[in-house]
């Protein structure tokens, strides 16, 4: 199965010669423009967040103060990104975590997470990111994930491969599932966390180990560059995964949701070929999409 090809009916349709939405033609000039804008917007937002974070944010005197500051930084980052992009391309659509929702008329929509990994940002940890994806006619064609505290930016353009700091990256060769390092994440609601903990309890003895990074976008990029063999999570929104999903697929990983489906709020799975499908089957059997 070629890297980046979704399993199930999507692969079958391609073999039968059906035209998929993922094959919508996009000219190279537009891809280049969207990539340049996404990279510059992510750089500006990353600088704002890194340089504007109060040094004592994680040890503020009250519980509400740090959360309020993080919310303000989230909103400021999204305003910076959306303002920059719409100044350059005023007819584009926008979907952002902090409420930006513009329909647009150009066929291009930007999907933005201004801080992916807000708890990490609150505590001064390194694993938070700015995630920006550009869709054309509903399919992601450009993805940029900037990790300012890591000092690295990932990007991908559909059909051109994936890159970290300008160098090409590939996912790891697939080990047996028992030797695979798996990333995951947890929701905020208690009931969901209880269900997710039960999945981890059963999955952990079947793999090498499990990591919880705290930024879905960076976890997907870590699959892309070989720092993880696979990653899964329930409860992701489009802005959490749009850019990272493209980067992972362009690096040779497979992505999907429940068997035969695309990544969704129910379940997102990404992994090296050979790890992806057995992990996906186990997650289906464990009901990782419930709760």
UniProtKB/TrEMBL annotation:
<keyword id="KW-0460">Magnesium</keyword>
<keyword id="KW-0479">Metal-binding</keyword>
<dbReference type="InterPro" id="IPR020583">
    <property type="entry name" value="Inositol_monoP_metal-BS"/>
</dbReference>
<dbReference type="Pfam" id="PF00459">
    <property type="entry name" value="Inositol_P"/>
</dbReference>
<dbReference type="InterPro" id="IPR020550">
    <property type="entry name" value="Inositol_monophosphatase_CS"/>
</dbReference>
<dbReference type="InterPro" id="IPR000760">
    <property type="entry name" value="Inositol_monophosphatase-like"/>
</dbReference>
<feature type="binding site">
    <location>
        <position position="115"/>
    </location>
    <ligand>
        <name>Mg(2+)</name>
    </ligand>
</feature>
<dbReference type="GO" id="GO:0046854">
    <property type="term" value="P:phosphatidylinositol phosphate biosynthetic process"/>
</dbReference>
<comment type="similarity">
    <text>Belongs to the inositol monophosphatase superfamily.</text>
</comment>
<feature type="binding site">
    <location>
        <position position="240"/>
    </location>
    <ligand>
        <name>Mg(2+)</name>
    </ligand>
</feature>
<dbReference type="GO" id="GO:0007165">
    <property type="term" value="P:signal transduction"/>
</dbReference>
<dbReference type="InterPro" id="IPR033942">
    <property type="entry name" value="IMPase"/>
</dbReference>
<dbReference type="GO" id="GO:0008934">
    <property type="term" value="F:inositol monophosphate 1-phosphatase activity"/>
</dbReference>
<dbReference type="InterPro" id="IPR022337">
    <property type="entry name" value="Inositol_monophosphatase_SuhB"/>
</dbReference>
<dbReference type="GO" id="GO:0046872">
    <property type="term" value="F:metal ion binding"/>
</dbReference>
<feature type="binding site">
    <location>
        <position position="116"/>
    </location>
    <ligand>
        <name>Mg(2+)</name>
    </ligand>
</feature>
<feature type="binding site">
    <location>
        <position position="97"/>
    </location>
    <ligand>
        <name>Mg(2+)</name>
    </ligand>
</feature>
<keyword id="KW-0378">Hydrolase</keyword>
<feature type="binding site">
    <location>
        <position position="113"/>
    </location>
    <ligand>
        <name>Mg(2+)</name>
    </ligand>
</feature>
<dbReference type="GO" id="GO:0006020">
    <property type="term" value="P:inositol metabolic process"/>
</dbReference>
<protein>
    <recommendedName>
        <fullName>Inositol-1-monophosphatase</fullName>
        <ecNumber>3.1.3.25</ecNumber>
    </recommendedName>
</protein>
<feature type="region of interest" description="Disordered">
    <location>
        <begin position="1"/>
        <end position="25"/>
    </location>
</feature>
């Amino acid at each position: 199965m070629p890297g980046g090809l979704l399993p199930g009916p999507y692969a079958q349709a391609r073999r039968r010669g059906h035209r998929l939405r993922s094959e919508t033609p996009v000219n190279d000039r537009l891809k280049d423009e969207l990539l340049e804008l996404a990279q510059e917007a992510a750089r500006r937002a990353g600088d704002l967040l890194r340089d504007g974070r109060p040094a004592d944010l994680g040890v503020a005197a009250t519980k509400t103060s740090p959360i309020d500051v993080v919310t303000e930084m989230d909103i400021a980052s999204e305003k910076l990104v959306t303002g920059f992009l719409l100044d350059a391309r005023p007819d584009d659509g926008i979907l952002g975590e902090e409420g930006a929702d513009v329909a647009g008329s150009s066929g291009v929509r930007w999907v933005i997470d201004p801080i992916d990994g807000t708890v990490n940002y609150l505590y001064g940890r390194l694993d938070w990111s700015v995630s920006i994806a550009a869709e054309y006619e509903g399919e992601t064609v450009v993805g940029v994930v900037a990790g300012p505290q890591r000092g690295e930016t990932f990007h991908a353009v559909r059909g051109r491969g994936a890159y970290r700091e300008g160098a090409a990256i590939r996912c790891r060769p697939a080990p047996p599932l028992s030797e695979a390092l798996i990333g995951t994440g947890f929701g905020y609601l208690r009931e969901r966390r209880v269900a997710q903990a039960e999945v981890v309890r059963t999955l952990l003895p079947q793999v090498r180990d499990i990591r919880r990074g705290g930024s879905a976008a960076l976890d997907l990029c870590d699959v892309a560059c070989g720092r993880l063999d696979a990653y899964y999570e329930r409860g992701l929104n489009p802005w959490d995964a749009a850019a990272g999903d493209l980067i992972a697929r362009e690096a040779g990983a497979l992505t999907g949701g429940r068997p035969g489906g695309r990544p969704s709020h129910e379940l997102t799975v990404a992994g090296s070929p050979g790890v992806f499908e057995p992990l996906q089957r186990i997650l289906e059997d464990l009901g990782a999409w419930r709760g």
